[in-house]
């Protein structure tokens, strides 16, 4: 149960109801962060627009790299909602979610590629307090993904830090997206 209650559809204004309807169609359920953010509808809409723009803008990173980096960030920060939703997104991108059980061993596990290991280590370093990213790490990521890919990775990990810290602060926890009950997004395939 979040620390502040979700806004119910019956108590929402017209624009918020439209956002809820879109989210329910897209995700099978209104994500709880949306319903909590609806207490400040202008910021909820700004956040939604931002998320859609980011989704369209990311073009240089492989989907497995970006999804794993965001997932790792959620794990490091302990955001159960982000872990739940991120697992569901990976599943629907056709990625192997069984290997997520071994994410803590990514540095030595044969389940992860070289690119994935680099991105996961970067997610760890960016999620440390204080941030522990090194010049060498950034240089290696730039060689691997190019400057645009490095910036995308940095941006996505930073965004996931914002999500995870915000949702955790407000007590927003997993919603059952990985159970298949809450989310009816058609699977890739």
From TrEMBL:
Ranges for domain Carboxymuconolactone decarboxylase-like come to 58-124
Q: Which Pfam families would you find in this protein's record? A: CMD
Record's superkingdom?
Bacteria
Signal sequence region:
none
InterPro entries to which the protein is assigned, alphabetical: AhpD-like, CMD-like
Tell me the protein's name.
Answer: Alkylhydroperoxidase family enzyme
């Amino acid at each position: 149960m979040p620390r502040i209650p979700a806004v119910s559809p019956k108590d929402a204004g017209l624009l918020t109801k439209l956002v809820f309807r879109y989210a329910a169609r897209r995700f099978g359920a209104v994500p709880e962060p949306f319903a909590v953010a609806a207490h400040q509808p202008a910021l909820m809409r700004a956040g939604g627009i931002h998320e859609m723009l980011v989704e369209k803008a990311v073009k240089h990173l492989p989907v497995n790299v970006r999804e794993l980096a965001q997932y790792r960030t959620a794990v490091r920060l302990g955001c159960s909602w982000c872990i739940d939703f991120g697992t569901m997104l990976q599943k629907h991108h056709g990625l192997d979610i069984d290997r997520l059980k071994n994410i803590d061993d990514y540095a030595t596990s044969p389940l992860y590629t070289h690119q994935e290991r680099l991105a996961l280590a970067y997610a760890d370093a960016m999620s440390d307090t204080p941030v522990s990213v090194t010049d060498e790490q950034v240089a290696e990521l730039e060689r691997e993904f190019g400057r645009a890919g490095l910036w995308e990775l940095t941006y996505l990990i930073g965004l996931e830090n914002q999500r995870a810290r915000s949702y955790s602060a407000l007590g927003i926890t997993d919603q059952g997206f990985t159970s298949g009950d809450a989310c009816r997004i058609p699977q890739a395939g």
